[in-house]
Amino acid sequence: MTISSQNRQAGPYLGNDVATAFTFAFKVFSASDLQVVRTDAAGVESTLALTTDYTVALNSNQDSNPGGTVTLVAGALVSGTKLTITSSIIPLQATDLTNQGGFYPKVITNALDKLTILIQQLLNGLGRSIKLPISDSAMNVTLPAASVRASKALGFDANGQPIAVPAGSAVTDSGAVTFTTSGSYSAGTVGKWLKDLASSIGSSLIGFIQSGIGAVARTVQDELRQTVSVKQFGAVGDGVTDDTAAIRAAIASLATSGGIVLIPRGTYLVSSAIQTYSNITIKGEGDSSQILVATDIEVFYSDRTTISTSIFRAEFRDFYIKKTFTGATTKYDIHLQNPNVCKFSNVRIQSGHIDSAYSATNVGGIFLDKPAGSTASAFMNRIDDCWIQNNSIYLLNITDSSIKGGYVWGHVRQFAIRLGGASAGNIDIIGVNGIITSQYNGGIWLDGSGINQVRIIGNEWDGNPLLTLGTGIYSPQSTFQVAVSGNTFWGCGKHGIDTTDPVGWSITGNNFWKGNAQDNSYDDIRITGVTFQPNGNTVTGNSHTIDVSRTNKGYAIREVNGGFNPFGNTYSSNSVLGGTGYQNPAILVLQSADQVGNVGMGTNNSLRLMQDQIRLDYEATLVKTARTQVAASGGTLDLTITTESGNGAPAAQGSYVGTLYVSVSRPDYTPQSRRTVWAAIGYGTTLSTTSLAQQDGTGGGPTYTITAPSNGVIRFTNTFASAVTVDMMFVGTKGFAGA
Asked: Full-prediction pTM beyond 0.85?
């Protein structure tokens, strides 16, 4: 029979701890013609022994059905090992054809088959051997003698001839150079370079350049060292191992160069304060990067060697400080002295104190601090989208900075947000989604005489009814140019806004809802004069609603004399709703204020004229007329405007403003007449008139005077030598004289 397959190998079969029998499909003459090789998990091969390690069952007809089955004696082939079956027929010629002997076809066929099998075995081995390309010219590839190649490696010279070289070497035209890491090599050789490349300085030998015009060449080491991970310095992040030293070392490694310190996902136990430096960003992966603190410590702080020592461009991003300590706390979690252009973004800082653990002394959260006497700058800092949970933010003498977005829950602290120091100013507090006020010093505490240019815009005060809360904005000292706009004050326990001696405040477009939650006569907006007269403040377009009953009612807007009257403030277009929630009237201001367009709950509307000597109820518009013939030379006609008084004004001090029309003519000589339009402002017996227009008849005009002989009365006195007919009409607004 012919041999129709060139394959002389079965497998490799992979062990599975089950199979014991393995088939092969090539012709052999006996079981001993097989070679069975087992390869262990390490790649080491061993040839198995017939009968001892395996048995063979050959198919009965090796011509028509070549092959058979190998069965392992020790049982199943284990996982991780392999089994390969091939033939290993001894290359001997055992067929002897004699003269006149039997010339049997089967004998001839078997002999030819054996020759073919031997050739296949050779080809099988050659297929896994090193060969020269057929295009190479003839060369001597004989290996060096054993004595020459002992403990050497195979190499090739410049002509491609095999030579023996030291182990771990490479050959170039200039000779052998080593690259083994255990060798010692001269500077400038390839071996030295390869050895250094595999060492800790290897990344400094590899170049890098960013794409784009103007990019400069750097090393891979320079690029990689811009960012370090705390785990590269030994941090574990299992919440049990103290990772303080590792985090400190990671940050310190960038103290000079600056860069990014990564805090990967994990829980990192920190037991003592860690210093950070200028130009370093500490970055995590959100709440998954948790710094766990069980003691009263500053977690991160900046150098405070002197009161003027500063930090620049420090950044904190995307991590979570969880403090479990529940005792008295005197340390802020992050404390930076004289910070400049520092930024906090998406940082969560949680106190260990529960919601009911109110304290007027415990501190925590973020403290940006310019100490008294510091000559350094401290400006252009940002706190964006941070969750300050049962903690607070304190900016002391900081300028040109902002707090935007996020949440500040300060109910268990002395305050939620505090701006302190007389030099603080130009601060934005914008879009904070939830401010929970402290019952002690409120939600935003402006704590410094002279604080100025503060913009409090679009924030929400979260009046959780389960908590004991305080004032929304608390300003106990004189502050200047504060804009409070578009905020929602929901459920403030005390006042919504309580400001003392403010100058130039603008309180516009805010929504006050369910104020005076402690039901103790607190107001939505209170302006108090203590050391001087608060003035130049505008309260406009605010909405005030208490839709539940209050026993101890407060005011929607109230001016208070704490030693001085507020003066020269304007209250306009405010609306009040809450029949059982507010005092009536709900807007209570002292005499020297404008009220225009306010509605609801007994609100009064008034304007100030003539250097605040007249307050007018502009809604009380009136028309008064008088007509009679007046005797010559001293005859009079009185037009009574108003005799009302009240609202704190002295008795009998009616006031008015409007237009006075006076028409005078001689009944005996009609061409002699005079028509005059006057602007008239009066209070009590004082009258100011200004001629707006006058027209005399063809015969000239009679003469007269206009005076105010008594409260609310305009008198016409004829100074002409003839009797005259007089028509008087006043169109205007009445009010009350101010004092």
From this structure: no
